[in-house]
Amino acid sequence: MCDGCLREVAGLKVAGCVSQRLCVTERATLNAQPATFFVQQNLKRVMVMAAIEIAPRIVVDEKVCFGKPVIKGTRVPVYIVLAKLAGGMTMEQVAEEYGITLEDIRAALAYAASIIANETILPVPAGEQK
Predict the structure, then answer these.
(1) How far apart are the C-alpha atoms of 105 and 92, rounded to whole Å?
(2) 3-state SS, one letter per residue, for the chain
(3) Structure pTM?
(4) Cα 68 vs. chain centroid, distance in angstroms?
(5) CATH 1.20.120.1200: does it fit domain 52-119?
(6) Partners of 40 in beta bridges
(7) What is the pLDDT of the chain when averaged over all its residues?
(8) Which pLDDT value is given to residue 38?
(9) What is the tens place of the pLDDT at every residue in 18-36?
């Protein structure tokens, strides 16, 4: 946790750091909502997670689809949209089936592309495999 993340909210001690990227004290510069708050009251720890937008039109919330990325304002996981498109459905069919817009589908594709673009696969030399 970075300095300044431990705060008092309504008489409760609140630590807002989950990672350096989602630090409460840096949310203004990162343009992200704080992801997780750990609230300690009466020696009990409760985790509360707010929905955060991880990409345009794509959000994660632990209470929706176990924290998988979903289309904002829906319970439609991004992976379902991608799987339906890969399975041969048209964008219009997917939009109609799940009640989302074509822009939502394009956002899901852009999110998937950004994940893959940042992925690096390093081969393990044959002698080092376990």
Answers:
(1) 9
(2) CCCCCEEEECCEEEECCCCCCCCHHHHHHHCCCCCEEEEEECCEEEEEECCEEEECCEEECCCCHHHCCEECCCCCEHHHHHHHHHCCCCHHHHHHHHCCCHHHHHHHHHHHHHHHHCCCCCCCCHHHCC
(3) 0.59
(4) 7
(5) no
(6) 13, 45
(7) 74
(8) 40
(9) 333 334 333 333 344 444 4
